[in-house]
Amino acid sequence: MASHVSTKSEEGEEVVVGQSVWADLPSELLERIVHTLDPLDRVAVRLVCASWRATCVREFSFPFEIPRLLIRRPDRGGELAFFSVKDGRILPFALPTWLRASRCCGHIAGWLVMAFDSERRIKVCNPVLCRYADIPYPPMFPVSKMVLSGPPTCHGWVAAALGRTGMMIALLQLDRQGTRWMAMGFEEAKQHGGFRDMALWRGDLCALCHDGAVFVFHSNLGLRTVSVSQLRDPEHALGMSRGSRWQLYLVDLEGALMLVRKRYESMDDKHVEWEVEVKVLASLEKRSWEHVTEIPSHALFVGSVVSEAVPAAAYAASGVREGCIYFARREVEAVVPSAICEYSIEEGDMRYLPVAGRHNTDVEPVWITPFI
């Protein structure tokens, strides 16, 4: 039955001015429409009406509020489970047992990028829909991180892979000719100590080097060409120094490219000093970066696998606070207890997030963030 669009006359009487059938489209047809859209268009689709939003949620979402933290539990046969920031506990929803031998190296819109290192293969899985798609063998292995422009159900989706050694990044696109990997960044990685993070920004791939330099790669997969421009100059050596460690992340916040840095310094077994710094690319032409003192209306979730900005008000019920950065990192867990924490930029306070039931630090904890 078609839905009516009405208004009121000057006398206060309801007058039907037209009819809309969009809300009454069959769910099968709506799903086919959603499959053809890119991630940004899906935002508009969710705002059309309740039935369109329900289709997006049913197709791409997990059966609980997000963001959540995906971890491996050492006490349950190594199963992958989710930790609730709000409740401070492990959720009963766990991933299928056949994923136990894998680790998560990326996520988008309810789809997890799972690497099976022993088998040297990668799958993109939707555990809610029980669907998966194979990713062609990348030019580097193992892969530490993959970012996707959209789910594998979207037309023309693109994936980028970062090797664990950090000396190569690669782009993948599926088209009529098949699958195409294009490796890039060899010289930049060699000159700047390798890559430690990457992000899709304004349709291009940005890469963050160990010395703090940032590059953007403008690629044409069809012509197999790529041009490189530098967005940020190197800093002092940011790697491991005596008793301290820097973590660096790239985050896209509604078109603004942000650099998040966190430093740990272990003074002794019980005392740890830390420092957090956020910068934003203020001028693309001048390559200038400015310090960020507040993040209005948003929160940042950062980690070595997934980093994303989310609207804080939309997820306040999940315990997300405006202007906060949520960190999750495996490699410092043995050094300090603040590997998983919440940092307020305005207050300058760090709040640790203890994971109930503990977790296996052999794999990276991964933020499962809201789909865009």
TrEMBL record:
Domain of life where this protein originates: Eukaryota
A Pfam family this chain is assigned to: Beta-prop_KIB1-4
Domain spans labelled F-box: 19-53
PROSITE patterns: FBOX
Name used for this protein in its record: F-box domain-containing protein
Lineage: Eukaryota, Viridiplantae, Streptophyta, Embryophyta, Tracheophyta
